[in-house]
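User: What would this chain look like folded?
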Amino acid sequence: MIRVLLAEDQAMVRGALSALLDLEPDIEIVGQAADGEDAWRQLQRLQPDLLVTDIEMPGLTGLELAQRIQRLALPVRVVIVTTFARGGFLRRALEAGVAGYLLKDAPADQLAAALRRVRDGARAIDPALAVEAWSEPDPLNDRERQVLRLAGEGRSAAEIARSLSLSQGTVRNYLSEAIGKLGVGNRIEAYRMARQKGWL
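Assistant: Here's the prediction, encoded as structure tokens.
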């Protein structure tokens, strides 16, 4: 049996994925999580073979979960199922050791087949998306990405500084670097462009 932990913040989508995978004779859903922190706790307790996760969730994102798993060398493989058909997201996912990257609008039978491939040590990535992922490199570093994401949520430099344990001057420097790298006029334009490219 392939033991799967499912992490998805939208209850209807989570329910549909669970029902779909439950139809497969060799796949067992051992846990479900509505946010990244809960997924992390369940992952440590349940030790599934695969984590099937969305990218954007409250708490920890799917990419942050994958990065933790990679950093700690945990024996679980990660498959992302998302609406984000953007090369930037896929590139970051691959760098975080993700083994599968599927779009939610893909045919249902592809999901179970992809999980079997990943369980067997292969990758399951949309080929057209893979080409796009390497056509335009992400210019932002992790800290610039964190600061820009918080700025895009409307937080002030002081709030960002407190949240990330940085000085306000350092936060302003990161924002300035991100704006310069993206060639835009302000933090809002930088946030929009980075989101559209899949770099946030």
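Strands lie at 2-7, 27-33, 50-53, 77-82, 100-103, 124-125. If you want, I can go into more detail on any region.
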